[in-house]
């Protein structure tokens, strides 16, 4: 306890924090953990250990997006990715509840509810699937309060007697407001982490908001830092199309991942090399009118997730329009370790213009609605999907057998917001195809047994082949516009499905301009010199960047024995590897193979390197 007894109880041991929480709650703990990065790992692991050892303790955890290193299947995957993961995520604590969940060994007195999963990480996991709670981001706090939350534990940044919620102001600020109103009763417990950037503004809170603070050198840890993913030509094409939909003086929300990087890259190209950007749109056959002018007034970013490419947009002078002293209002962040360092090292005046806020402020219009409407001028809310039906329903979070891939998150919030704001648009992005068991499949489908956003909320959809404006259109028009941005290998089948359902005219045919929607055209339109795989840098070494397409090529063909055999044969016939290939083999530990298995691995890698490089 600080002098005078007004501050939080400061402790140096996670076990002591756990014991005090158990005493405070009489052993019936409803623990709220932030989504993503903000969880306090040592505290939750200590509570999990206590509850595992004493079945009289009841522990219920409510959270989302538990960050873990992805599971690796094959030996080749492990050889390639384990060193990368060690560099980017090494030292980040593992969550005991997630390990028990994966092993099917969750104690009966412990329950874990999540409303968002790391994409694909819980497929086939009965424990996680049964206890998943479907929720819009804006409703999750309400459900947590309804469950009787009595402890919230998160990592914080510290400056003297002040603390910053930093990466996760999202639900915590809303929960504190409800506590102030007498609608919730919980202890806020912080775990200090020196690697967190100290975000000021609404995220900075006084020490008396906390009941306890864990501050010890023994509980410091490096932050989880997933590496940026490579951007494919198709994703770059999507980014180029989206960038032409964003007006100067508007507002922008985008999410994490390669498509977000692609959008940011094309926005910067539009700003700095407008002739090159317009030439790209011409090569893609993008129909006019385009938004291709410079960002003189700039953009304001009300975005639930502050993704690292927003820093690149700030540096480029694109995100600069201020609202209440901020150019960005974000709810949470997670990204590469270079992103956290950039925030820490940023000029303080600039960092103070990035405000981390409560999610109710960002994802909803309620509360100070008139001011929000004025601020979110010409808003573009960009989100990704897995599939879309020909009638305009979006599939983003789950499969038709009920398995949850990720979660709704804030996608519905932003779709609904776009339909309520004057001049705003919701933009759903997705590649036209995906690879499944070695074959290409269309992501535009006639129907699917699950949907995230219903068809009556359809707005804009973007694939690498163009933009489909669906808002206010008839079913027939929606179908025709989506077929126009589908891969041409699947257009005929989609036309027949729609025609047999009586949803398009019997004599309608695909216009000639949309019959060449093929990957080869996109690759030719997006030269590597202007559209690199890593437009904002990467944690992958040069050798690893060379291996990446080969590893993807190998994965795409791994389930087809004939193609795998052909790849193996090519590797065996390849002769002596050149210098670059030898460096790649050395990186994989296959420069001097031992035994039959390693010789096969070596041949597969050589075959994949040469096939992917064609």
UniProtKB/TrEMBL annotation:
Keyword Thylakoid: no
Keyword Signal: no
GO molecular function, one term: hydrolase activity
Stretches assigned to the Acetyl-CoA hydrolase/transferase C-terminal domain: 335-498
InterPro entries membership: AcetylCoA_hyd_C, AcetylCoA_hyd_C_sf, ActCoA_hydro, NagB/RpiA_transferase-like
One GO biological process term: acetate metabolic process
Pfam family, one: AcetylCoA_hyd_C
Keywords from the UniProt entry: Hydrolase, Plasmid
Protein name: Acetyl-CoA hydrolase
Organism of derivation: Sphingobium yanoikuyae (Sphingomonas yanoikuyae)
């Amino acid at each position: 306890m600080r002098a005078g007894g007004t501050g939080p109880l400061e402790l140096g041991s996670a076990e002591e924090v756990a014991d005090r929480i158990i005493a405070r709650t009489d052993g019936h703990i409803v623990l709220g953990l932030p989504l993503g990065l903000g969880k306090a790992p040592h505290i939750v692991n200590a509570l999990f250990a206590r509850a595992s050892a004493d079945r009289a303790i009841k522990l219920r955890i409510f959270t989302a997006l538990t960050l873990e290193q992805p599971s690796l299947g094959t030996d080749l995957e492990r050889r390639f990715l384990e060193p990368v993961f060690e560099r980017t995520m090494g030292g980040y604590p593992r969550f005991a509840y997630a390990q028990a969940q994966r092993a099917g060994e969750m104690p009966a007195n412990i329950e874990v509810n999540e409303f968002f999963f790391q994409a694909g990480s819980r497929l086939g996991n009965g424990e996680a699937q049964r206890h998943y709670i479907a929720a819009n981001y804006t409703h999750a706090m309400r459900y947590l309060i309804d469950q009787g939350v009595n402890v919230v534990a998160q990592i914080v940044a510290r400056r003297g007697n002040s603390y910053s919620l930093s990466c996760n102001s999202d639900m915590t600020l809303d929960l504190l407001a409800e506590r102030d109103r007498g609608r919730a009763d919980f202890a806020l417990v912080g775990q200090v982490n020196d690697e967190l950037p100290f975000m000021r503004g609404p995220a900075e809170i006084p020490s008396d908001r906390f009941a306890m603070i864990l501050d010890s050198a023994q509980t410091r840890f490096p932050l989880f830092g997933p590496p940026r993913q490579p951007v494919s030509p198709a994703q770059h094409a999507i980014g180029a199309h989206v960038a032409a939909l964003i007006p100067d003086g508007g507002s922008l929300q985008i999410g994490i991942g390669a498509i977000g990087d692609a959008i940011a890259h094309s926005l910067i190209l539009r700003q700095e090399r407008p002739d090159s950007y317009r030439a790209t749109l011409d090569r893609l056959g993008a129909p006019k009118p385009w938004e291709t002018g410079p960002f003189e007034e700039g953009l304001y970013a009300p975005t639930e997730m502050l993704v690292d490419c927003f820093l690149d947009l700030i540096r480029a002078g694109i995100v600069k329009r201020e609202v209440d002293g901020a150019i960005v209002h974000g709810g949470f962040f997670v990204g590469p370790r270079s992103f956290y360092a950039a925030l820490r090292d940023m000029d303080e005046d600039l960092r103070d213009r990035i405000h981390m806020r409560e999610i109710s402020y960002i994802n909803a219009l309620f509360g100070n609605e008139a001011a929000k409407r004025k601020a979110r001028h010409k808003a573009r809310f960009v989100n990704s999907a897995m599939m879309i039906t020909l009638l305009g329903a979006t599939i983003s979070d789950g499969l038709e057998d009920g398995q949850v891939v990720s979660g709704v998150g804030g996608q519905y919030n932003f779709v609904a917001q776009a339909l309520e704001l004057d001049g705003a648009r919701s933009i759903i992005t997705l590649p036209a195809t995906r690879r499944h068991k070695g074959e290409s499949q269309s992501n535009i489908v006639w129907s699917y047994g699950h949907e995230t956003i219903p068809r009556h909320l359809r707005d804009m959809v973007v694939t690498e082949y163009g933009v489909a404006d669906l808002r206010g259109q008839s079913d027939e028009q929606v179908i025709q516009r989506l077929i126009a941005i589908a891969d041409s290998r699947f257009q005929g089948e989609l036309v027949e499905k729609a025609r047999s359902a009586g949803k398009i005219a019997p004599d309608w045919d695909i216009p000639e301009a949309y019959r060449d929607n093929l990957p080869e055209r996109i690759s030719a339109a997006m030269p590597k010199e202007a559209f690199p795989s890593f437009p904002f840098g990467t944690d992958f070494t040069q050798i690893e960047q060379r291996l990446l397409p080969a590893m993807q090529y190998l994965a795409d063909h791994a389930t087809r024995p004939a193609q795998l055999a052909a790849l193996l044969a090519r590797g065996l016939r390849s002769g002596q590897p050149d210098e670059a290939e030898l460096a790649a083999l050395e990186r994989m530990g296959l420069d001097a193979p031992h035994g039959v298995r390693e010789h096969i691995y070596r041949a597969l890698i050589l075959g994949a390197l040469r096939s992917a490089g064609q």
